[in-house]
Amino acid sequence: MNLVLHEKWTVERFLDWEDQQEGKHEFDGTRIIEMTGGSRAHQRIVGNLLRLLDDRLDPDRFDAIQEMRIDVGGRVRYPDVLVVTSPVTEDTRTLRDAVVIFEVLSEDTADRDLGPKLAEYLRLPSIRRYVVVAQHRIFVASRERTPSGWKLTELATGALDIPELGVLLPIEAIYRRVRV
């Protein structure tokens, strides 16, 4: 379901509406976009990222969270994995900041993840790095925030260095048990 809105909605109105729905939805400022379930490869990569981050992050400084909505300046997105520094209470439903965001690319979401979402995340000052992980081949693209925009690093082997978090994530471990 992609629902084009015929009247202007605020983020607050969308969040109130979504809280009453069964599934998850993104809001791009003019449309409501239903989120569908990902493939098994997608699920494995997300699970691997969460395990790797949980094993490596300092729990007093960072928290890795799966598929929690984030308000990105008038839009609401559900990154596959994000890392925050601020304490997140158990009843929090909407985040307002993140340090690193991970998206697992699929054919259905690649254009949105590499287009509008990339631009939206650049507008959120707290985001230091945006990482996309392909699910049908071994390929990771890491974008680091710089004063002039995103600095791109592409990897198919080795380890993903995330100095903002003080972690290295081996590419092989990101793709553990994924048949590509």
Low-confidence segments, ≥5 residues, pLDDT <50? Answer: none
Q: Strand share of the residues?
A: 25-35%
Tally the helices: what do you get?
5
CATH class: Alpha Beta
Q: Which structural class do the helices and strands define?
A: alpha+beta
Shape: globular
Descriptive tags:
180 residues; alpha+beta; tt1808, chain A; 6-stranded mixed beta sheet; 3-stranded antiparallel beta sheet; 5 helices; globular
Report on this model:
The protein has 180 residues and is an alpha+beta fold. It has a single domain, classed as Alpha-Beta Complex (tt1808, chain A). Helices cover 23% and strands 33% of the residues. The chain contains five helices and 14 strands. It has helices spanning 11-18, 40-56, 110-114, 116-122, 171-174; strands at residues 2-4, 25-27, 31-34, 63-66, 69-71, 76-77, 81-84, 94-95, 100-105, 129-134, 140-146, 149-155, 159-162, 167-170. Strands 4-7-9-10-11-12 form a six-stranded mixed β-sheet, sandwiched between helices. The protein has a three-stranded antiparallel β-sheet with strand order 1-3-2, covered by helices on one side. 27% of the residues are buried. The mean pLDDT is 91.
